[in-house]
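re: ur question from earlier - yeah i can do the single chain one, its not a big deal. heres the input i used so u can compare w yours
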Amino acid sequence: MEGFLPQLVLILLLIVLFGFFNEKVTKLNYEISLMLFTIILMFVALAVSLLLGGNAERIIKEVQTININEFLMEGVICFMLFAGCCNIRLEDFEKNARQVTVLAIVATLLGALIYGFMFYGLSYLFGAKLSIPVCLMFGSIVAPTDPIAATGILKKFGLPKGISFLIEAESLLNDGVGAALFVFFSSMVVADSNVKFFEVMGKQLFGAVLVGVLVTLVCYIVFAKTKDNTRRITVSLLAVSASYLLCEIFGFSGPIASVVCGVLFAYLRRVEKKRKNIEIETKEYTTFWEIADYLFNSVLYIMLGLSFLRILNMPHVLMTSIGAIICNTVARFVSLFISSNIMGEIPDGYDKLSFVKLLSWGALRGGLSIALAMSTQNMLDADTYHIVLGGTYAVVFFTTVVQGLSMKQVYNRISKKVG
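and the output i got, formated as tokens:
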């Protein structure tokens, strides 16, 4: 099966079939159901391949040639982030600036460090003996929570407004911190001593914010003056894609610029509505981004499911998976516990321990982590690369399926204690 169109047809077919089955029968969270059912399909196809001489196995191998890294980082991630955050209120950022900053920066940094040193010790237990820089780079890959998973899954569980906003805002902003950490630790892996952490952090974050703001302000002039909703959609597409492209050229964080672009567009629309005291016709605009969000998220989770069987042939797969999940859970909990003592007031009446438990279990990972793990292929030997990629798949699967499916129950249990 070669070419873009056959792969697209297969993915759309799975989206329709699994989505319809879930709607009528299982009624799970939509994104989780797509990933879970696709993984089950892959295992069924693998079993069939053992019975029928390998034909199904060949199909699986061809399907898994889809490159998540290219799909996300060189394709649609800017649009997915824009769609996920274009309805977030900038006023909420201002109100919770301290909490969001601590979660996005301090918790992510601590999580990467704790994970890295824990996995370094575990790697010696199962004989891999990875270096500290490699383990810290691994920590930077899985430490940031995934904005696509958070906005696509967690917001549907009826979480309190304040807690829900913190989870979304943290996940939207901490990928820039994770990217800075990844660049810094990966430079240690390839022995580039010229890379400085705070310089990378400042460039990734502040450069992206500057680009996002400037491009949005310029594009919004046309957006505000036109009455054609189709043109408004096109302007928003131009703004977010141009912001991302400029960041790629100048070495800034494209995802952060996409988030800034989405939030600022939402804010400027509200200002325009308030100033003119009229209802702005944006039904088509809003509907377009809702459909885009639905479609891109669906494709992503199908691709994650199709790629899952890759980990079965990787070295130390069982120990790597268990170790990565344990390290991730502990690192997230400890980093949040420390951060909760300096972030100030916790919203919705939550005490520190309940807050830490809820955000620890609500820390989903997704395609961004997989894409970063895949990008390490040229800087690591084959065995180490497979350990990093396999461990990342394990964390993504566990947080998305296990934590995602049980998140509502965990929230209900914690909320009873809080209430």
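The longest helix spans residues 382-418. not sure if urs matches, ping me
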